[in-house]
Design goal:
It is a single chain. With about 220 residues, this protein is of the alpha+beta class. The protein has one helix and twelve strands. The strands form four sheets. The chain has a five-stranded antiparallel β-sheet with strand order 3-4-5-6-7, with helices on one face. The longest helix has about 55 residues. It is elongated, with a radius of gyration of 31 Å.
Amino acid sequence: MRANSSPAGFTLIEVLIALAITAFVSAIAYTSLSTALIGVESTRATSDRTYEVNRAWMIITRDIRHFVSRPVRDEFGEVEPALVGGPAARFALSFTRSGWHNPNDNLRSNLQRVNYRVAEGALWRDSYPVLDRASDSAPREVKLLDGVEYLEFGFLGSLSEVQSGNNTVALETRDWSESWVADTSSPDSELVPPLALELRLLLEDWGEMRRLYALPPF
């Protein structure tokens, strides 16, 4: 006798179970890949932000360490002291620095006037092509850092303001002057640069950052 046989196949339940397993494995794989991609993007964003912050501090530190006591004239013909800053000043910080590189040997000074200011949530650095400016002297504006809430300073006028005791020196900056400007009651008096300054920078994502700088030649 010949037996009639039909080829075996998958039942509907088996197909549904296979599809469910495939969908589950795919979901796990997608979630893992998505998490990995988010981690990579987060690491890249953190790395980029770290580079931007470090670059801004590098430029600020370079400028302050090259500070030189050289007053200038502004575009209105008024004398600007070698260094001014704080809320009572025109800019958060403005001073003269040396070491302005001149690779093309242009007929100019190696001194440069720079300003630091916060505008539109960003930290800006202004630099002028000349020291004593004319009415049409325009600064070169460079955005250093986004996400900045404020830029504040403390200025040390004399060593008597440094607290000391028990053979140690404690740098308590709360009593330092918040502004360093000329005395308007004595317009002919020269504003001597401070001995040191504290810079406080508040970032939206990193919080407040502080740096102390002793000004040359101190």
